[in-house]
Amino acid sequence: MNHILKLRLTIVFVALFSLLTAGSFAQTVRDSLQKVLQQPGLTPEEQVMTRIRMGRALVDGSRKDAIASTQTALQMSRTLKDRKYEALAHSALVSLEYTAEDTALASHHLDSAFLFARESGDQLTLASVWYRKGWLENRTGKPHEAVKSFQESLKLGKGLPGNIYETNVYYNLASIYADWNDTETQYRYAKACLASALTRSDPDDICNGYQAMATSFEYQFNGDNSKRELLDSALYYNRRAIAIYEANAPSISFHSMVALLALNTANLYDQYFPRTYRDSAQHYLDIALKIGKETDQQEVVASCYGMMSTFASNDGNYNRASDLLLAGLIALKTYPAPDNRLMAHLMEALSEVAEKKGDLPKALEYAREYSKYYAKAFDVDRMAIAKKLEAQYQARQREQELVTLQEKAAFNRKLNIVYIGLIIACLVALLYLFRSYHFRLQSTIQQQKLLEKEKQDGVLQIRLKEEEALRLQLEKQEAELQARLQAEEAARLQAEQQLIQTQKEQLQKDLLAGTLQVEQKNELLESLQEKLKEKAVQPDLAKQITRMIETHKRMDKNFETTRTEFENIHPEFFRKLQEKAGNSLTKLDLKHCSYISIGLSTKEIASHLGVAPKSILMSRYRIKQKLGLGKEEGLDAYLMAWRENNPLTEDAAG
Fold this sequence. Notes:
By secondary structure, the protein is mainly alpha-helical. The protein contains 25 helices and no strands.
């Protein structure tokens, strides 16, 4: 009976942490998934995820069907653009292949899951694959590596919506620290597991959270049995988990977990409470046995019958104890592959009960059966150990290959660094050579430019000297020409002065002749005036003649006042007027223009010329036409302006 109890305790404290992802789904869950797959319009992505869940639902009934469903999901995921679905399918196959005792294939699927998760770039998918890696490491005897993987999963999935793996990560971390007897850290992760489960409101996760808390308090109580409140807390959380199951049984996926919880609760009542609590223990044993049979859990069924047999044996009812153990054997034999180790433990318990009853032949028979089943179990264990060792060897070989590859990669990186260094050195050398050649080329070009510039400067200097000589020659020629022009100008001025002098002398002669004529005329007029006084003449005629004589005297006086002005008239004045008039001016016209230019009025000109003023006006009109003057232009103003613009007195004076 002690062997059965030992087996039961092992199942309760270890299997509770190992069945989270390998447990069976309820029939209702499988049925609901089948209905989902039959729905029209289901997207390829939804079909993949549903088939992955179906694989998990079929694992307890038929691992072959579970793997086939997940393989179908994997094939469908390869047609999808998003690689995360292929990563999730490979991740699901990790646990399925491991439960099928193919650790090498499980590791292969894990590597593929990592590859496609990184390709997808989805952080939540990568977090789930890291969780699966920790799960596999924990079950292959690598708890320290598993903790690192779980921590990486928590870091990647922190704060991401839809992180359904967070509760499972905390659950597994609590189990690892429970194995390490670190109850403080175990409690911390169990508390985090329950808190995470309550935020998601998923019945499966909440059951797991309560179970983790119950186990944590139970481990703490095992360390100090004086703290009964720890035992009460363990029972409280176990009852809470079972109550969640009973309230949500149709939607609970992991019924096997509840069977273990019920078995563990019954054990606590049996171990730490008096016999009066036997009914409570039996109540939870009935729950565990019922669920164990429904979920095909040989360990739970064997443990339940073993515990009930212990109750009967302690009461002295050996026949009842023997019947319960035989019922356990019958139940195990109904399975396609009954567990030889469990069969051996039941045979050993039957042998002990038969010995207590005094039926030694039966005790010997059961002992022989025990040896037979134990030998089979030993062979199975040996094969399992061999497979495990082979898997570990392959894992170590892969790790060694990985280390070798990493070392090779590191060596290649270093070699690449050396190559890069050599390339950089070559580039620097080439750059130096190029710069040196460039500098030499620039220096040569600069020297050529300097020589060319010096040559050009020499040519320019020669040209400048030639131009300077030419300039000096031109200046000399210009000076000679200037001297010649000055000489010619001086000769011209001299000729003009001589001409002016000649004209002036001629004018003075003309004026002298005119003066003599005036004096002669005056003498004649005075003589005539005296004769008129001597002889009697009509008064009117005398007055008229006298008036005419006075007028001539006055004109002579005016002639004296203007004589100096006429002396200064330049002969060019008349020439230019002729040019202006096209040589159409008569001598009388020129004389008329002379009188106008010196400021005589029309009446005075008429008196000088001895004509009527009307004739002067007609003469002025003809002169204006000959000079081309307009109606608005005055002849007096024009001739005076002409005289000012063509100075006469300066040349005459010169």
